[in-house]
Amino acid sequence: MAQHENLSVVLYKKHDLRLEQRPVPEPGPKEVLLKIDSVGICGSDVHYWQNGGIGDFVLKKPMVLGHEASGTVLKVGSGVQHLKAGDRVAIEPGIPREIDEYCRTGRYNLSPTIFFSATPPDDGNLCRYNTHDASYCYKLPESVSFEEGALIEPLSVAIHACRRGGVTIGSKVFILGAGPIGLVNLLVSKAMGASQIVICDLSPNRLEKAKQMGANVTVAVERSISAKELGQKVKQALGGAMPDISIECTGVEFCVQAGVFATKSGGVLVLVGMGKPSTNIPVLDLIIREIDIRAVFRYCNTWPVAVDMLASKKIDVKPLVTHRFPLEEALEAFETTKKGVGIKVMLKCDPNNQDP
Ligand code: NAD
Ligand code: ZN
């Protein structure tokens, strides 16, 4: 490994994405140096590339993209006990910087000063080598592949959403949106014991994928119907019952509204999708039927559970991956993701291992 050879995908500014060599970093006492293997491209990576920011997170200096990653430990810092060179790990991108009240109560995702890979100004891990806090690297058993390890990041969003929504044995769940996030919510709802899962989308291809991945019913959304009508369609799809929990994974106002109308009285609407800063909701319907809205921001305490669920084959995330590119072709991979063909695009960062 030459000290200066660390091919990295760097976003300079809106529409200016470059592949460049950066130095290989040295791990601090609590860190590990990783040889990155697989990195999934997330909608947010594309959004930063296309818009230069998301809400208050605005790119002010060049930033390495990527936060859905796995790799192999090459070197450990002097204080690292639980990992050694050669260990394969999945990387949790959010590292709290201080033990504040959120951290103390286990909700470290809400800590305002948290480090988060590929959220300005913090660099991500779309590169050949990176350092990371060892406590946020989770050892993968042999049976879990690098790509599955990388997919623990989006899977974590769903574990957190289903926990927040209270999905449990026998739940009837309605998922709005069959993109990567809707699909992982489908997988986790099933694993948590949901008896019936209805999923809707505009795209027939995505609904087909949802069907293959275990949805009981798919509902094709036509642009002409109202949010209330979509709610009715879901009720029909469930043979007259209404979902206990709806999980909104589009960020589209229409879907937030349909989520309210669809949910059973006393049920829960989980908001995962991030769209406009303000959204109109049918608040009277919400009040009269006592529907709880619960918001989801990333995740906390999910990696250990996710590793176990993958190792025990209770969840299969492999069908999510539809495209693979070597790191050198990152720009093409981003173009492919932007087009919205397929589901998850993986970048393969180790030139000596392009396997799943
Ligand atoms: P995506 O764009 O790939 O998927 C969204 C899906 O919604 C698409 O398949 C699209 O066809 C469908 N859709 C759009 N309009 C629709 C409509 N009117 N009716 C039905 N379906 C419709 O995105 P993704 O990667 O799956 O992410 C989904 C959302 O989750 C995004 O808004 C993203 O920002 C958000 N997200 C939030 C968090 C969080 O921490 N809260 C984390 C990750 C992603
Ligand atoms: Zn992501």
Structure description:
- With 356 residues, the protein is α/β, with parallel strands linked by helices.
- It folds into 2 domains: 6-151 and 317-348, Quinone Oxidoreductase, Chain A, domain 1 (Alpha-Beta Complex), CATH 3.90.180.10; 155-295, Rossmann fold (3-Layer(aba) Sandwich), CATH 3.40.50.720.
- 28% of the residues lie in helices and 26% in strands.
- It has 10 helices and 20 strands.
- It has helices at residues 43-51, 101-104, 146-165, 180-191, 204-212, 227-237, 253-262, 283-288, 303-311, 330-339; strands at residues 7-13, 16-21, 31-40, 53-54, 57-58, 63-64, 68-76, 88-91, 94-95, 115-116, 129-133, 137-139, 172-176, 196-201, 217-220, 245-248, 268-271, 292-295, 321-326, 344-348.
- Strands 3, 7, 8, 11, 12, 19 and 20 form a 7-stranded mixed β-sheet that branches. Strands 15-14-13-16-17-18 form a 6-stranded parallel β-sheet, with helices on both faces. A 3-stranded antiparallel β-sheet has the order 2-1-6, with no helix packed on it.
- α3 (146-165) packs across α4 (180-191), α3 (146-165) packs across α9 (303-311) and α6 packs across α7 (253-262).
- It is globular.
- Zinc ion is lined by residues 42, 44, 67-68, 153-154.
